Amino acid sequence: MSNQLIKQFTKNYFAMFGLFIVLVLIVCAIFAPLIAPFDPNEQNLAMRLLPPIYENGANSAYILGTDDFGRDLLSRIIYGARVSIMIGFISVVISLAIGLLLGILAGYYGGLIDLIIMRIVDIMLAIPAILLAIVIVAILGPSLYNAMIAIGIVGIPTYARIIRASVLAEKEKEYVIASRINGSSDLRLMLLVILPNCLSPIIVQATMGFASAVLEAAGLSFLGLGAQPPLAEWGAMLSNSLQYITTAPWMILYPGLAIFLTVLGFNLIGDALTDALDPKLRSR
User: Which of these, 25, 100, 218, 239, could form a disulfide with 235 (CB 3.0-4.6 Å)?
Assistant: First the structure.
């Protein structure tokens, strides 16, 4: 990213706020054992359902209170950041790797290859993302890793269409034609000549896809198809807290807030990258 693009990005206060959220998330994920005051799975039934520190009956050792097993809520949220980072990264890698392959093949070769790939993509897009993810997890079996695979598969059509459109726009330009005349192979043209000039929309979509992956994983875990107990995952924490929504609302409030802030942070960064990488928007 050039200095001009960096300046454009840093001038966006919403982007800097999103970057701050993401950095906090990363720090929590890396240094969770040092930051978290308790083991996230340590149970203390004598301390179950303690309210946050600002309410009556709280214990100062449990800043955000405890859950129905007496586990420290703050520690579980901090460790949940690790799970969210892993979910987002692995899901985006799966979506990007397969979507990149399909999109560049469809855009570069066109014809029958393009027709077959894009009709498969259209069929996948016709099914609601969360429903398709539920079907895939139901086939593979409920687990966090199967949920990440499902979310990765669900994201493939979006990347494929974006990359195909970018390749179609680039492949007839003069620099590509010149490389072809100079004897460049199809593989070199696709990966070394065309692809580097298609990175802007890919970077933006990967950032947005990270946020979507976290949200979809939380939804699957909420339905019992993702992370399984006792793993500290925000969606699973929400699901386990439903019966205490009136008696212990903090059990739902803080995991929900963590999901909200994480998705908000990545979306703000994605919006800022769109503005910074798009010449038309940047000129405004």
Answer: 218
Q: How far is CA 173 from the centre of its chain?
A: 33
SS3 assignment, position 79: helix
According to DSSP H, which parts of the chain are helical? 3-10, 13-30, 32-35, 73-109, 111-126, 129-140, 144-170, 174-181, 186-188, 199-222, 234-241, 250-277, 279-283
Is the confidence at residue 272, as pLDDT, over 80?
A: yes
Q: Are 66 and 118 a contacting pair, CB within 8 Å?
A: no
Tell me if 60 sits within 8 A of 37, measured CB to CB.
no
Rounded to whole angstroms, the Cα distance separating 276 from 179 reads 29
User: For residue 136, how many C-alpha atoms fall within 13 Å in the half-sphere facing its CB?
Assistant: 23
State pLDDT tens for residues 28-70. 999 999 999 999 999 988 899 999 998 888 888 999 999 989 9
Which CA distances in Å does 212 have to 95, 170, 206?
12, 28, 10
pLDDT higher than 60, residue 128: yes
- pLDDT computed for residue 154 by the predictor: 94
Query: Exposure of 45 by Cβ count < 10 A (0-12 exposed, 13-18 middle, 19+ buried)?
Result: exposed
| Radius of gyration, alpha carbons of the chain | 22
Tokens encoding 79: 């460790």
Cα atoms in the Cβ-side hemisphere of radius 13 Å centred on 244: 19
Q: Which residues pair with 66 in a beta bridge?
A: 72
The answer to whether the beta carbons of residues 88 and 76 sit under 8 Å apart is: no
Q: Say which amino acid occupies 102.
A: L
Q: What is the pLDDT of residue 129?
A: 87
Give me the amino acid identity at 41: N
